[in-house]
């Protein structure tokens, strides 16, 4: 393997670890108990997480995906033991992006506009939907990260 391949692998793994960490941390710290929070606490948490993570993930996720594409291009035909795990890891991270864009962000966009007085009658359903799909992102991100690490480690 060339030094370029090693650098691309390392960059891809580090960036994917940051993305997976952003999924894992809130799940571990907050999401598992989300149904126990009062409306006031829930709104404060979701709005704070949105402010703290929204812009960061808007840059980090595309850069991480681009780094995986670079590994795919670099390893195609020359390193199948890296190419295929990276391809499947990329697919999982792409799935997490789609879940984020089409499920999570629309829910957070609604919550951003809420106050305790204006919360809809079905707010618990939306909260539970967000938590369920967030778990899908955690599993996808961690499994995708494991696949990205597997290629270089198992070669």
Number of domains: 1
- Main sheet characteristics: none
Secondary structure: number of strands: 0
Mean pLDDT across the residues is: 94
Low-confidence stretches: none
What's the quaternary structure here? single chain
- Global outline: elongated
* Helix and strand sequence: HHHH
What class do helices, strands and sheet pairing give?
mainly alpha
Descriptors:
155 residues, mainly alpha, 4 helices, 83% helix
Description:
- The chain has 155 residues and is an all-alpha fold.
- It has one domain (3-154).
- It contains four helices and no strands.
- The protein has helices spanning 3-29, 39-75, 80-112, 123-154.
- Helix 2 (39-75) runs antiparallel to helix 3.
- The longest helix is centred in the middle third of the chain and has 37 residues, at 39-75.
- The mean pLDDT is 94.
What's this, in brief?
This protein is 83% helix and 0% strand.
How is this fold's topology laid out?
Layout: H1 3-29, H2 39-75, H3 80-112, H4 123-154
Helix pairs in contact: 1-2, 1-4, 2-3, 3-4
């Amino acid at each position: 393997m060339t030094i370029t391949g090693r650098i691309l692998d390392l960059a891809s793994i580090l960036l994917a670890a940051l993305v997976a960490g952003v999924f894992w941390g809130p799940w571990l710290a907050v999401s598992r108990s989300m149904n126990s929070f009062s409306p006031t606490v829930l709104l404060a948490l979701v709005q704070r997480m949105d402010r703290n993570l929204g812009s960061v993930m808007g840059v980090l996720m595309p850069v991480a995906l681009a780094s995986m594409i670079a590994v795919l291009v670099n390893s195609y035909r020359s390193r199948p033991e890296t190419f295929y795990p990276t391809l499947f890891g990329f697919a999982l991270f792409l799935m997490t992006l789609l879940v984020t864009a089409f499920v999570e962000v629309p829910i957070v966009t609604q919550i951003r506009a809420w106050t305790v007085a204006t919360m809809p009658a079905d707010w618990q359903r939306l909260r539970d939907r967000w938590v369920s799909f967030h778990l899908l992102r955690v599993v996808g991100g961690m499994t995708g990260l494991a696949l990205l690490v597997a290629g270089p480690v198992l070669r």
